[in-house]
Write a structure and sequence with these properties.
The protein has seven helices and seven strands. It is an alpha/beta fold and about 240 residues long. It has one domain. Helix 1 packs across helix 4, helix 3 crosses helix 4 and helix 5 packs across helix 6.
């Protein structure tokens, strides 16, 4: 019998995540899932809004497909790196919380956050030459059928319902994967909304359809596709 292929990431079980996931299911209720396709994505990149602190967890618990996602490398770093990312970036910069409560929350959450993010199949993303490691790890998981979710929005000033701008890193990932594997990887826009309990998966598009477009133009096209989901299925 052929050996069953294992997902590349994470490399070992994360017991704490199973417990946390069980508890959170009691509070994060199952959403309505709208899939505009005949089947669910497998070997594909999914682009979606982060939707605040709980967006990735909401998606991980209730999305109809098992997936990995790309996130800040600090979340798999040392305790100090995790603490400063949670306090300074997530809570204070993006969620606009005050320093004292942010410090308390970050100090506590950083204790177990690494196990949680590994359990969610987080692939670390970098803003320097190490980004090639992100591309390589994404490629390995895509090849064995694990779709990867990217949150490409520019969230330096916070999270918005209607996205303002997308960072072009996901385009580089798809371009590299296509070149290495002589394929045309599908890109699925997706929108998840915790409060309204909705997950909607759009039809895919391909870079071959946007041949000749710059990365900025591809990002603008992708931005419109994501925001269209918001206006047609969430905001109405």
């Amino acid at each position: 019998m052929a050996k069953k292929e294992k997902y590349v990431y994470p490399k070992k079980p994360q017991p704490i995540f199973g417990f946390v996931k069980f508890i959170l299911r009691l509070f994060i209720h199952k959403p309505k899932i709208i899939n505009l396709n005949d089947e669910y994505p497998s070997e594909a990149l999914i682009i979606a809004p982060h939707r605040g602190k709980w967006g990735p967890m909401f998606m991980h618990i209730h999305a109809p497909i098992r997936h990995g996602f790309i996130g800040a490398y600090q979340m798999l770093g040392t305790y100090k790196e995790r603490f400063h990312y949670l306090r300074d970036v997530l809570y204070m910069q993006k969620l606009h919380r005050k320093k004292f409560p942010s410090t308390l929350k970050a100090a506590f959450e950083a204790i177990f956050s690494k196990g949680i993010y590994r359990g969610m199949h987080l692939i670390p993303s970098y803003d320097d030459i190490r980004f090639i490691n992100t591309i390589n790890l994404v490629g390995k998981n895509l090849k064995i059928g694990l779709p990867i979710v990217v949150f490409p929005e520019d969230s330096n000033k916070g999270y918005d319902d209607e996205l303002r701008r997308l960072n072009p890193g996901f385009v580089k990932i798809v371009e590299t994967y296509n070149r290495r594997n002589n394929c045309d990887l599908p890109i699925y826009p997706m929108y998840q909304h915790l409060k309204k309990k909705i997950i909607v998966i759009d039809k895919p598009f391909y870079l071959s359809e946007l041949k000749g477009k710059s990365n900025e133009e591809i990002c603008e096209y992708s931005l419109k596709r994501i925001n269209k989901l918001y206006h047609e299925y969430i905001a109405k």
